[in-house]
Specification:
Blueprint (H helix, E strand, L loop, with lengths): L7 E4 L3 E10 L2 E6 L6 E6 L4 E6 L1 H18 L2 H15 L1
Antiparallel strand pairs: 1-2, 2-3, 3-4, 4-5
Helix pairs in contact: 1-2
């Protein structure tokens, strides 16, 4: 998750979103780029994207779970990158 792999999406109402982390196949967590106060699960398939708003506290739990998962599987580079995003976003 180094800086060169940042991913952005344009939300029809809230503008540019920043990808926080993948959740599962075809589902990712995004936040608004500047304020980082609104969070969305973004599900994508071949035909479309769907945005599901979630609360900040739920988003934090999702990222904490992803951090645990990355640590458990030994994905050190992804873990360190997500840890930086977590600290910048939630602390």
């Amino acid at each position: 998750m180094d800086k060169n792999n940042e991913t952005y999406l344009n939300h029809p109402t809230f503008g540019l979103l920043f990808k926080v982390c993948p959740i599962e196949d075809n589902r990712e967590l995004y936040t608004t780029l500047y304020a980082q106060r609104l969070f969305f699960f973004v599900t994508h398939n071949r035909d479309n994207l769907s945005f599901e708003p979630i609360k900040r506290s739920d988003a934090r739990l999702v990222v904490e779970n992803r951090l645990r998962q990355l640590r458990r599987i030994g994905a050190d580079i992804d873990y360190k990158g997500l840890q930086v995003v977590y600290q910048r976003t939630f602390q």
